[in-house]
Amino acid sequence: MENLEGEFAPEAEPASAGLIFGENIDRARRYFELLVRDGDLLGLLGPREMPKLWTRHILNSSVVAELISPGVTVADVGSGAGLPGIPMALSQPQAQFTLIEPMERRSDWLKSTIAELQLGNVRVLRARAEEVTEVFDVVTARAVSALPNLLKMCVPLTKHGGEVIALKGSKAADEIADSKKLQKKLGIESFEIVRVGGDFLTDPTLVVRTKLV
């Protein structure tokens, strides 16, 4: 990794972090430190992501917890560095999160990170999404695949009446249009583009909520 004191120095903690995480801010800070330490080494996040680690990755993920009710079960598919699952779990400690990650080194890192952060509402499942037989109230994903492929992967993990929440960018509407052909086959009731975190973030997080019949 290039010198972290130079152009890839880790981002300073934004003031909004404390407001978002509340009593879990110390855990969020430790998670940030672990990503800085291990991100490039384990291929979780490259050095170029360090100057925007808080805003583009941790806080961007955490505010999605605004859409998660207490008591629900959430699966984070292709969790990788624990995004969005770990920040969401810190923001919504009353929900139960399962991080699904097929790569051994990443799943091992997730397990050690959860243990260090003492996150009792999070577990790790080393598997491909297609191999998982459980179903969840909500399934999340970030930077995994275009929406049509993502829905084929995630809908089988989602309970009837549940929803898939995908963090997306400016092409979200186009991805929804491309997914409409799967609506009947996958039992999709509706698609909705939602922006979350507007009270805390300059650039709110855009998600596609896909609700199932």
Automatic annotation (TrEMBL):
UniProt-listed InterPro entries: rRNA_ssu_MeTfrase_G, SAM-dependent_MTases_sf
Protein keywords: Cytoplasm, rRNA processing, Transferase
GO MF assignments: rRNA (guanine-N7-)-methyltransferase activity
GO CC annotation terms, alphabetical: cytosol
SUPFAM superfamilies found in the cross-reference section: S-adenosyl-L-methionine-dependent methyltransferases (SSF53335)
Pfam families per UniProt: GidB (PF02527)
Protein name per its UniProtKB record: Unannotated protein
Organism: freshwater metagenome
